[in-house]
Design goal:
The structure is a homodimer of 225-residue chains. With 225 residues, chain A is of the alpha/beta class. Chain A is built from nine helices and eleven strands. Chain A is globular, with a radius of gyration of 16 Å. The A-B interface holds A 114, 116-120, 161-162, 165, 167, 169, 190-194, 196-197, 199-201, 203-204, 206-208, 210-211, 213-215, 220-225 and B 114, 116-120, 161-162, 165, 167, 169, 190-194, 196-197, 199-201, 203-204, 206-208, 210-211, 213-215, 220-225.
Chain lengths: 225, 225
């Protein structure tokens, strides 16, 4: 599969490029506003991956860089890993360029930072995934990775241990994205309902940040038990 | 300590009475609308506990039954385990009867059941814990147990393995409730922010139900990892 990561030089995007690039045989295209920057980042990430890949990791697949617009042209999965403000407009602009059967993945969350814990910044659409879906009405949209901390994802020398809730209205799209997640060492895709349930999943992001601060831990994620 | 469980004959309330009754040395008062029913239930629960208590379980403490109003009279902790609709009015009615330093614990959640997963039914106050806090303005209110499935809690022959996020504005109240939780076999209290963060915690309830249905599991809870 060809997987485009929009915002692939950002915190979460970087982790996704690194994990998917090392642990799967897919072709990963790191998208960024600046194509040159994307290419340089892709080269650097590919080099870093080579150092940590063990015998169990596939040696096919690739990591390349491109502008956001170029990255989606023949993508099977487009992961939106940009900040919440520009995300819907970016997807709206790119939607006409997407292959008909491409799945769009929203990783987007908005957090209201507080002194005593963090709250969810509720978007008008009810969830960020719903806002993305409204911007790409002809494509199946799935929510995922909202509850995965970026730091441990990019730390390839450690194996994480996170469940990754996946929500969406298209069972095929949820399966495709869950499969991608399962291919990554230490990540498990867990179906968590329709796209309407994105709100419950997105609330995990501020919750996990609050728990981390209150318990003096970094990189807090979840497992369903 | 004396712990009153309002709605102690309901699903979650029953589990809390059983766990706290067996695993801690506290005096548990099962509150119900009907005092006679509460007394009968308390006797039955105490008997059930005796059968499963091992050498590590304290044999002091007690389980008694009373009307909701009688149960709170000298309580150190009042756990609100009634359905969302009557909860704020019940707390409003009982608040004048509470000892000055009693901590009120909201376990309340509202769920919008759907065919393809479940959503959070957002109350006007922003969270159910905030609605309870408005009904007991002179007492510290803590949110907890929203993400603990009732079935496994009441199944005393199995040891659960759940983290229990605890939110509240009073550090002392959060500590008191976290301590209660830690006293129960297999439960761990985890501070998760101020009372404003109750919204993020309450969203776990519909999320865990959706995950359970999509993955054909019952009694799904969480661990922070």
């Amino acid at each position: 599969m060809r997987v485009a990561i929009l915002g692939g030089t950002g915190g979460l995007g970087r982790g996704l490029v690194l994990r998917l690039g090392r642990d799967t045989a897919h072709d990963i295209v790191l998208g960024s506003r600046d194509g040159d920057r994307a290419e340089r980042a892709a080269d650097a990430f590919a080099e870093g991956i080579a150092d940590t890949a063990g015998p169990d990791h596939p040696d096919d697949g690739s990591i390349t860089g491109a502008t956001n617009a170029e990255s989606v042209g023949n993508a099977d999965v487009v992961v939106v890993a940009v900040p919440p403000e520009p995300a819907p407009d970016l997807v709206w602009d790119l939607a006409p360029l997407l292959p008909a059967d491409a799945v769009v993945v929203s990783t987007v969350v908005g957090i209201e930072m507080g002194d005593d814990g963090h709250a969810y910044r509720r978007p008008e659409a009810g969830s960020y995934a719903a806002a993305i879906a409204a911007a790409a009405p002809d494509h199946p949209v799935v929510g995922a990775f909202q509850a995965v901390p970026a730091g441990p994802l990019a730390a390839l020398d450690e194996i994480p241990n996170y469940d990754v809730p996946v929500v969406g209205d298209s069972p095929d799209a949820v399966d495709r994205v869950s499969g991608l997640i399962d291919d990554c060492d230490g990540l498990t895709g867990v179906p968590a309902g329709s796209l309407e349930c994105a709100t419950t999943v997105e609330h995990l992001a501020p919750l996990l940040m609050s728990v981390g601060e209150r318990t003096d831990r970094s990189g807090v994620g979840i497992r369903f038990v």
